[in-house]
Every structure is written in structure tokens, then in C-alpha cells.
Input
Amino acid sequence: MEDFYVYKIGTRVSIGLIFTRTIPNPRRVRLRKWENRPTPQTHFIDGSIYLAIALQKLQSDLVETGDQRMVNKFQGHRNAKNPFWNVRHWIVLISPFVYLCMFDAYLIRISNALEPHPWVSYAPPKMARLIDIGQVKILEDNIAAKKAQRVAVTFYNISVQYDLRYTQTPVRPSNAVFRKTSIQVKFTNPKVTLEHEIKMSTTYQPEKPWESRLLLHEMDHVAISTDPRLINMLKSLLQAPAKLTVELSANANQDATTINQAITDLQQARREAVQVIVQKYYERLDAQSNNGLDDIDQRNEFFMGLYSKQDLESLEFPYLKEIRVALADANLESVANHYLISDSK
Output
């Protein structure tokens, strides 16, 4: 019987909270209204009000039905003299708050995915170019910012596509259990896709975002991972021919799967080697600029030194031979213009 009444309270609280989140609100007409987004604090306030109303209404219901025993129990609980609620009951009452906090987080993710951040609409041309080629999304994410111990942090992703052809030649000796084969692979039509997410704390609300030092710093990160030399380096590396020795099982039906996996592993290792370089450059930028708080000394020299043969050698990049032509063909004027992301720099 007590469970029934507790569930009744929980239902009323849930309905009340859902009602406050679905009725039109002039302060929150759009899904993404940055300065008036519901928070756990608003859920707590609204929920407390509805919990008090639900308790009062339930007591009235009990009086009307003549269930004096339950009236006494509820009065005892409210006077902190005779509490009867156990953990199960509290879970029922707290669950609406938890649900709505999760639901609002889900709405934030959906709105981030469907609707560009308002700042993007008035980004200056040089920034808009970087946003376009880097497929940049600006998101509010307190969890990511807190985890990185920053007000803002930039994440990038490199995805690649390519066509391939290979020939295989058996290697002697072989046995009944394993067979070795030499694979000569040629890659064509390499495609590189770059994606970025700048995740910021909700407390970061500069009056002129595209003039703020922090956002310019995050766009410097984007510039590093969209550098024309990086893209040419990736394409050159992805289409570099390769020779592999693959050990095949006795089951010939699995040959194609084993060979394709070996080729995929090769290209994955190549891509990851490039990502290691990009991450090191990100860290170097943070160190040089004190995480965006200071200007970079000799800015042009700093960025032009990235992705050079000498620098990649010092970082022990393992595929220098495969990208030597791409490094030699770099258009340094285009690279210099790439890092002019604001009129003040």
C-alpha cells in the first residue's frame, strides 16, 4: 500500500516536471537558447515545488478516503518523527530529476548535431574558410572541458579512403598448416576527410568571440590539422605502394579476408603515425602559447617549421621515404596564407 502512494507521488512529480519542459516558454522558444538552457538546478527547484504539491494533494486524498493510518504515516514523515520511506521509495521520487537531466543532455547533443553554433554564422572570411575545410563544429560541453582542464579544447578526426589492387606470390617453403605469400599492393584515388570539434565550457561567453584570444587559439589548432602540407603528406603516404609478407592458414577460403586485413592494418599504421605528429604539434602550440593565454613568439616561423623534413626527422616519423616528394613540392606561400587566420596576426 505504501508503495502505491509513493508511486502516485512520483507520477505526479514526473507529470509536473514534463509539463514545465513542454509548455511554451518565451525565454526558451528555440531548442538551442544558450543563455536559458535548463540545468540540474532548475530541475531541483521545479521538482521540489511539485514534490511539495504532490505530498499535499496526496494527504488531502487520504483524508477524503478516510485512510487515517496512512495520513498519520505521512504526517509523521513530514514531521521527521516517523519516516517510513526506504531506498526504493526515494529512487522512485528522484528518478524524474535524473531522467530530465539526461533528457536535456540528449537534447543538447541533438541540437549540436542539427544546428550550427550561432558564432559560425558571423565568422570572418578567414575563419569561415577554416571552418569549411576542417568541417568544424563548435559545441558547448562542460564535461569535455572539465576533463581537459581547459575552458575549451579541440578534437580532430582523420578518415581516409582509397582504392587498391594487389598481386600475390607464394613464398617457399610452406607446410600443411601455414602458407606464406608475398603481396604487392598499389593504392589509388586517396581521399582525406578532416573533422573537428571545438568543445567549450558554457561559462565561456565572450562579447566578441572572433576577437577573443581563446577562440583564435583553438582555430590555430584547426589550422595545424588542416595544413596543406599535412593533406599532401597523407595522400602521398596513402598511395605509396607496399610489399607485405602474409602468413595464410591452411583454409584457402580465408585468404582474401586475411590479406585485406593485413592491408588495412598497414594503412591504419600509416594514418596513426600522422595523427601522432599532429598531436605533438597541438601540444607544442599549447606550450608555446601557454594554452592560448600568450601570443606566439615568431608566429610565422613557428608554423612554417611544422611538417618540414628536418622537424619530422626530429620527431622520428617512420615514413619519411614515402612522403619525400610531397615535402619537396610544398607551396610555402600557400602554407603561410593558411595560418593568417585573423587580420591582427
In short: The first strand starts at residue 136 and ends at 140. Confidence is low (pLDDT under 50) at residues 1-7, 21-41, 78-85. Residues 255-289 form the longest helix (35 residues). Strands lie at 136-140, 152-171, 178-200, 242-249.
